[in-house]
Amino acid sequence: MAPVPCALDAPSLPRGERGAWRDGARGPGGGAVSRAGEGLAAGFVLAAALCLAQPADAQGQGDAPKDALKRVEQQMQTGKDRQQQLEHQSQALQAELDDLRGRLIGLADQARDQEQALGGLEESLTALEAEERERSASLDAERRQIAALLAALQRLARIPPEAALARPESPVDTLRSALLLRDAVPALRARSDALAKALEALADTRGKLVDRRAKALAAQVALAEKQGEMNRLIARREELSRQTEEERVQVARRMADLSGQAADLRQLMERIEAERRAAAEAAARKEAERREAERREAERRLAEQREAERRLAARKEAERKDAERKLAELRAAEQKAAEEKAMAERQAKEEAERERKLAARAPSRDTGNASQADGMLLPVAGKLTTRYGETDRYGVASRGVTLQARAGATVVAPRGGTIVFAGPFKGYGLILIVEHGNGYHSLIAGLGRIETAVGRKVAGGEPLAVMPADGEPDLYFELRRNGHPINPQRGFGAPEGKGQG
């Protein structure tokens, strides 16, 4: 990497520029630094900061140690030259600061004298104002007295001699008045002259008062100007001191950095080379670790993929066996259902045939009342309208019998047993289920009111419910054994077998 150029690598400032900087720093009468000098100083400070920001290895990296050492030494020489320049500038600034201090002391003395003079003027103004008020008051009193005397003299002067002889006073009083008037006129004239002089003195006092006020105002303005100049000089002094001190600190810091770099440049280059080797070794180590991690990750993913495939195969095999088992169960269930259906159809046909033969032997049962069925008591007395296995009103084979009873007829238990259900059920209305033992159950539906409860034991023929109270209600009676409906007309002693269901 090529070295980054630094402003400190340039040669020392030309003598003309140094002189211009010093002249601008001092300035006529201690004024502000010239713009050329300020720009030069600011540029140098910025360049020094940029040089400080460059790392040591960036300046020397890629060059021969000899060239790097030479460049650092040149930079150190440039810094030393700049330190000497700053020392000269510091001396010049110190002289200017001493001059500024002297001027500040003189200005402070002048300001103090002006403040004292201003205080005297203010005191004299106060005395003159008091004197003006006293003279004005005395003149006003004298003016009023003279005005009264003049008014009296004017009145006497307006009286003619003839009128004076004709006045009622005696001649002696008139003569006395004339003598008094003759003596009063010179006194009035003297008092008038004194009054005129007093007026002139009052005018002179007022003039002095105006002059003193003008002088006091001018003294105040001059004092304010002196104070402003003192403030400007103080600010100028602080600014020069701050700029010089900041630049000296920056150059000193840069020199310290350069000294530290040049202390042992060979060790620095060795350290850089060691750092490079360490970085290369660390990079190689990281690359090897990365490759090893990738290899391990690939092995882990391959193992996970193989395990997933094994699990998938095992799951598919289990699903296949389960499907075969379910298929076998389904086929067995279908075969069993087909057998049961065939048996049910065969039994239904046999039952229908027996019913047909029974109907042929006893034709009067189709229209007569029924309360007993081959030795079994029917739940209600009434007309048998639908037999077991016949098509009911819904078009399906009936699993029980239907009896048309009278309104409000009593419903009894067909045989002794236990009530296992009593109440409404879906669309069947009120129903009763009686458990008789040996797998027999009676289901009675179409009731109007139930007069028993679940869990109660009943005897054969015991009243259980009442039919609806209006019309010609139908009662449905179904007899089941082991869950399968059988013909109720055959009674409880019929051979065990499955009916239509």
TrEMBL record:
Keywords: Coiled coil, Hydrolase, Metal-binding, Metalloprotease, Protease, Zinc
Domain of life: Bacteria
Keyword Zinc: yes
Ranges for domain M23ase beta-sheet core: 398-488
InterPro entries, A to Z: Cell_wall_metabolism_enzyme, Dup_hybrid_motif, M23ase_b-sheet_dom
Coiled coil: 69-159
PANTHER family reported in the protein's UniProt record: CELL DIVISION PROTEIN YTFB, PEPTIDASE-RELATED
Membrane-spanning ranges: none
Protein name (database record): Septal ring factor EnvC (AmiA/AmiB activator)
Family annotation (SUPFAM superfamilies): Duplicated hybrid motif (SSF51261)
Start and end residues of each stretch annotated as Disordered: 1-32, 331-375
Cofactor: Zn(2+)
Ranges of Basic and acidic residues composition bias in the record: 15-25, 331-358
One of the Pfam families matching this protein, by short name: Peptidase_M23
